[in-house]
Amino acid sequence: MKIAVLPGDGIGTEIVAEALKVLQALDLSLELEHALVGGAAYEAHGHPLPDSTLRLAQAADAVLFGAVGDWKYDRLERSLRPEQAILGLRKHLKLFANLRPAICYQQLVAASSLKPELIAGLDILIIRELTGDIYFGQPRGRRVATDGHFPGAEEAFDTMRYSKPEIERIAHVAFQAARKRQKKVTSVDKANVLETFQFWRDVLTEVHQQYPDVELEHMYVDNAAMQLVRAPKKFDVIVTGNLFGDILSDEAAMLTGSIGMLPSASLNARNQGLFEPSHGSAPDIAGQGVANPLATILSAAMMLRFSLNQPAAAQRIEAAVQAVLAQGLRTADIFSPGSTRVGTREMGDAVVKALRAS
Ligand code: IPM
Ligand code: MG
Q1: Contacts (Cβ under 8 Å, ≥6 apart) of 149
Q2: What's the mean pLDDT in 178-195?
Q3: What is the Cα–Cα distance from 13 to 31, expressed in whole angstroms?
Q4: For ligand 1, what atom is nearest to the CA of residue 130?
Q5: Which one, of 125, 130, 8, lies nearest residue 64 by Cα?
Q6: 135 classed as catalytic
């Protein structure tokens, strides 16, 4: 089992180190190879996704990814910014299916900004299409407008587009995931305004005929954003496009108390995957040893489950995370009075200890 380890920038290196400790505490023969990515790779090699890093990722069974980005790179031309590394990996590895579970742990109910009764027991799976939509659609760019409200003015444009096979394959991922859960899929679109998402709705409806045992509901994205904070427990699996999924998954993350708890998996058709916390590089707290490593540790568990076919090991990690939460250990982002505040490393050590005890 070959894993490409790409810690990246900011808190990325700190949290990935903890996930590796946890992986190494399992008795598995894992081959780990490290490489630079994001701003760190730009500094060393002049590019956020150097060829050597991409090749390592392509040759691995899975990629364990930290986070990329720092404000200091915001002025670089777009193709050299750290974010291009993650977009490039998604594109080159064809990681079209992004799974972001939003689970509210019983012990963290109080950490959410929502009322406890709204989120206690919450368990949603957001499935975001990850290689299409306005993120990758061509053409895009800047030009002088020849029509519109201000002909002759400078303008910028992007292209929102989806092909039928792109929608079909993510629909299958969603229906199959729902079969293992509460058997309900909410497809989020903007069919009332956008041609692309009327098409999305039509294709979802067509694919649904192959899954009569799963309930399909369609919801406009503005309403979905509202329902997520009004009655989040009504959702089971949410499937949506790249842009809407980006926004809704951050919103869903906050329901659970902290984005510092949320893992994610990005998979291709061969189940090769990239696993990363849903949060970013948090340059404001980097190097302080206070970041929450649990999202990355839980991402490593997803890696074992989805790409390395080690479901039992995945479950052990998840149980160990539950155990440290039950012990009352909390990093700053999930701290509440009465619990014990710990740093990044102590949290990782506690998970390893719980794992060894299991
Ligand atoms: C995410 C992030 C990325 C995205 C950025 C870093 C390019 O926000 O994974 O959700 O927009 O997809
Ligand atoms: Mg995002």
Answers
A1: none
A2: 98
A3: 18
A4: 12
A5: 8
A6: yes
> Measuring from each residue's beta carbon to the nearest atom of ligand 1, which residues come in under 6 Å?
83, 86-87, 246
CATH of domain 1-96+268-358: 3.40.718.10
Residue 301's φ and ψ, nearest 5 degrees, are -65, -40
For ligand 1, atom 8, name the residue with the nearest CA.
246
Q: Does 269 have pLDDT greater than 90?
A: yes
Q: Read off the pLDDT band of 352 (50, 70, 90).
A: very high
Q: Where in the chain is the domain with CATH 3.40.718.10?
A: 1-96+268-358, 97-266
Asked if pLDDT for residue 96 goes beyond 90, the answer is yes
Give the model confidence (pLDDT) of 277-290 as tens digits. Answer: 988 999 999 999 99
Query: What pLDDT, on a 0 to 100 scale, did the predictor assign at position 257?
Result: 81
Which-ligand-closest: CA of 69? 1
Q: How far is the CA of 171 from the centre of ligand 1 (A)?
A: 21
74 classed as catalytic: no
Fold designation for 97-266? Isopropylmalate Dehydrogenase (3.40.718)
Q: What's the rounded Cα separation, in Å, for the pair 326 and 143?
A: 56
Q: Is 222 a catalytic residue?
A: yes
Mutate-to-test residue for ligand 1 from 49, 87, 249, 281, highest number of ligand atoms within 8 A of CB:
87
